Amino acid sequence: RRARGGEGADALLPEAFALVREASRRVLGLRHFDVQLMGGIVLHEGGIAEMATGEGKTLVAILPAFLNSLGGSGVHVVTTNDYLARRDAEWVGQPLRFLDTSVGVVQSDMASTLRQQAYSCDVTYVTNFELGFDYLRDQLAANASELVLRPEDPFHYAIVDEVDSVLIDEARTPLVISSPAEKPSEKYAVAEELAGALRGPLHYSLEEKERRVALTAEGVEEAERLLGKADLFDPEDPWAPFVVNALNAKEFFLRDKQYIVRDGKVVIVDEFTGRPMAGRRWSSGLHQAVEAKEGVEIE
Questions:
Q1: What is the rounded CA–CA span in Å between residue 104 and residue 117?
Q2: How big is the chain by its Cα radius of gyration, in Å?
Q3: Whole-angstrom distance, CA of residue 98 vs CA of residue 24
Q4: pLDDT at residue 4 above 80?
Q5: What domains can you pick out in the chain, each with its CATH number?
Q6: What is the average pLDDT score of the chain?
Q7: What is the pTM of this model?
Q8: 156-180 pLDDT tens trace
């Protein structure tokens, strides 16, 4: 009531942290140590708190989460995978619920209505990928009823677990929403056969850092000869993107490393966690190129 009446979070911090500490002791049998309280203060102030494994950072996060949810705007606790989001919401969510704070969790296989319910909670546990894609999908919504994030102030306050991984390592992978073509092109299958006939470094070079292939002049000529085309880059009948994607799939995207094949579908594997990311697809035709390489249905 005091928070919603305009009293600042800094002024409420001592009492809010004391409530969470006591609730945790009663519900979980775990009482925050002083160093954990200090970590909670750092997170509340927008800093980065480094804690070793076993020092209870999951328990620390509920301190500023509770404090910053008091105004009613909602808090996101961002984790790196669905398992951690579900586990943390069930475990350390107990003291929050004891304090009459609603706790939600977003999972990759959730429908939009369930996502709306989760994001409307006081504290929501969610992965960085799901939060990012939900934001992008909201930008494409035709009306307010299709929004899953809160319509007003959707990003009030967030706590990011494994911040170095999320904001540095995984930030290298862009989040892209694309729409499928009306009909998968037969060029993917043809390009896959062509990629098997081309040989590096004569026909193409490997740019290891960017994980991409660059056709050489000899490669362009050989591809045009094999395809029977005068110009690989003809804007009316472009073949270069298909050939390059096929070569990328051949050289840099390996089965059981970058992806797995499950139930006749190519499923991307998160390179940081090793977990399959069902429903995710590479953009710009790369996913179709991998599907052609594996001989599964091209979507």
A1: 7
A2: 24
A3: 9
A4: no
A5: 3-169 (3.40.50.300), 185-294 (3.90.1440.10)
A6: 89
A7: 0.71
A8: 999 999 888 888 877 777 777 766 5
CA distance 124 to 115: 10
Burial 225-260 (b: 16+ CB within 10 A, else e): eebeeeebeeeeeebbbbbbbbbbbbbbbeeeebbe
> Residue for token digits 């929050």?
96
Read off the pLDDT of residues 235-270 as tens digits, 9 standing for 90 and up.
Answer: 888 899 999 999 999 999 999 999 999 999 999 988
Q: What is the mean pLDDT of residues 176-199?
A: 80
Strands 212-215 and 259-262: unpaired
DSSP character for 172?
G
DSSP string, the chain: -TTTTT--HHHHHHHHHHHHHHHHHHHTS----HHHHHHHHHHHTT------TTS-HHHHHHHHHHHHHTTSS-EEEEESSHHHHHHHHHHTHHHHHHTT--EEE--TT--HHHHHHHHTSSEEEEEHHHHHHHHHHHHT-SSGGG--S-SS-TTSEEEETTHHIIIIIGGGS-----PPPSS--THHHHHHHHHHH--TTTSEEEETTTTEEEE-HHHHHHHHHHHT-S-TT-TTS--HHHHHHHHHHHHT--BTTTEEEETTEEEEE-TTT--EETT---TTTHHHHHHHHHTS---
How many whole angstroms separate alpha carbon 220 and alpha carbon 198?
10
State pLDDT tens for residues 126-145. Answer: 999 899 999 998 998 888 88
Q: In angstroms, rounded to a whole number, what is the distance separating the alpha carbons of residues 254 and 250? A: 7
Is residue 198 within 8 Å of 217, Cβ to Cβ? no
Q: What is the DSSP string of 198-228?
A: --TTTSEEEETTTTEEEE-HHHHHHHHHHHT
